[in-house]
Amino acid sequence: MSDILHIVGGGMAGSEAAWQAAHMGIDVVIHEMRPKVETFAHKTGNLGEMVCSNSFRSDDSEQNAVGLLHWEMRAANGLIMSCADQNRLPAGGALAVDRDPFAETVTARLMAHPRISVSYEEISTLPDDGNWIFATGPLTSAGLGTAIAAETGAEALAFFDAIAPIVYFDSIDMSRAWMQSRYDKGETEAERTAYLNCPMDRDQYEAFIDALLAADKTEFHEGETATYFDGCLPIEVMAERGRETLRHGPMKPVGLTNPHQPDVKAHAVVQLRRDNALGTLYNIVGFQTKMKYGAQTEVLRMIPGLENASFARLGGIHRNTFLNSPTLLDGQMRLKSRPNVRFAGQITGVEGYVESAAMGLLAGRMAAGEILGHPVATPPGTTASGALITHISGGAEAKTFQPMNVNFGLFPPVQGLKGGRRGRKDRYQAYTDRAKADWLGWLEQTALDVA
């Protein structure tokens, strides 16, 4: 019994943790409450279900920190990246997937592994013994949330996370919209035409902003506060920060030419990205929203090309729970007050699918190493994975701790390189070159440790 690793939560982090530990020779039980206990955002009982965007963001491992994280996970035999590559969709320089087949692939791979089993039940307490990883994500159940708060002696922090609407492609007016990736980015024609674009002139944009600001929004319950993660702001919150905010964010018109009116420069452009392999569903990029459903349809149909849009899913908002990890977790992702319990994924204060899966990868390996009697060291802070775990386990300021995407600002500087925008390309290349060498060294060392 003591040699079994129990993982609570079958999302990105829990799935990756199970895969890594099982490949190190550990028997794993995944405890997943779905479909018996549902959440606001999940639609199936599949492991690895994507509940927001279908994008893993940039796949550039030389100039982008999240692309580097992709590279590290692939090098570590990562389940999530392997399944993402298997179900990839054209998305310019990004890695986007067909969400349902992706989750089905994750589920099938885990269920087929001889050392992994799944128990469909809700865990609402922190066990006193055994080896546990809690990877319950942003939608941690109320019972477990209460148990965590009781154990830590402090309320879990929380912010609100919004999801974007999905549109049926055949309801989009292609006489007004067109297919093009920004700056024609991509090596193939499919990549260069991966996004669907809807242009707005100045008057259309201003009317859209007016409607957005006036629309009915979801109200918070008494005692809740709206602290948003800046990487996932609702569009109406961005609009409230200034009328030009959206035009310089998800609606920026740069790098695009409208073939219907090639001589007319759009004032703003709304982009949609394919959400499934069939190309029948498109999600509105960056359009997370807390507008009420009736208001959403009215406001979004003001977008040229979407006047008659039909929606497969409207946007929504949910509470996102996370720990004050710098005060609660050690460098092995263990709860300091109860070291038989580890946490992984978004609940630790990382943001994004890839970051969550990466923390699952580390937690799974560290837990397996401990069970085997060969502790797995924390990866160097010069790597993307190491920079994230350093941030959540003490690198961040506890008083102001907020969820964080991976970014080069978390990396130790490379000495002797020029700062500022002009030196950025060389600086980022140096970060990624150093990270790849250090990550491969860590993989080799930890493989020897558990051999």
From TrEMBL:
It is found in: Cytoplasm. NCBIfam families: gid_trmFO (TIGR00137), PRK05335.1 (NF003739). FAD binds at G9, G10, G11, M12, A13, G14. GO terms for molecular function: flavin adenine dinucleotide binding; tRNA (uracil(54)-C5)-methyltransferase activity, 5,10-methylenetetrahydrofolate-dependent. Catalyzes the folate-dependent formation of 5-methyl-uridine at position 54 (M-5-U54) in all tRNAs. NAD-binding protein involved in the addition of a carboxymethylaminomethyl (cmnm) group at the wobble position (U34) of certain tRNAs, forming tRNA-cmnm(5)s(2)U34. GO terms for cellular component: cytosol. This is Methylenetetrahydrofolate--tRNA-(uracil-5-)-methyltransferase TrmFO. One of its GO terms (biological process) is tRNA methylation. Gene3D superfamilies: FAD/NAD(P)-binding domain (3.50.50.60). Keywords: Cytoplasm, FAD, Flavoprotein, Methyltransferase, NAD, NADP, Transferase, tRNA processing. Its EC number is 2.1.1.74. InterPro entries: FAD/NAD-bd_sf, MnmG-rel, MnmG-rel_CS, MnmG_N, TrmFO. It catalyses: uridine(54) in tRNA + (6R)-5,10-methylene-5,6,7,8-tetrahydrofolate + NADPH + H(+) = 5-methyluridine(54) in tRNA + (6S)-5,6,7,8-tetrahydrofolate + NADP(+); uridine(54) in tRNA + (6R)-5,10-methylene-5,6,7,8-tetrahydrofolate + NADH + H(+) = 5-methyluridine(54) in tRNA + (6S)-5,6,7,8-tetrahydrofolate + NAD(+). Residues 6-373 form the MnmG N-terminal domain. Belongs to the MnmG family. TrmFO subfamily. The keyword Transferase applies.
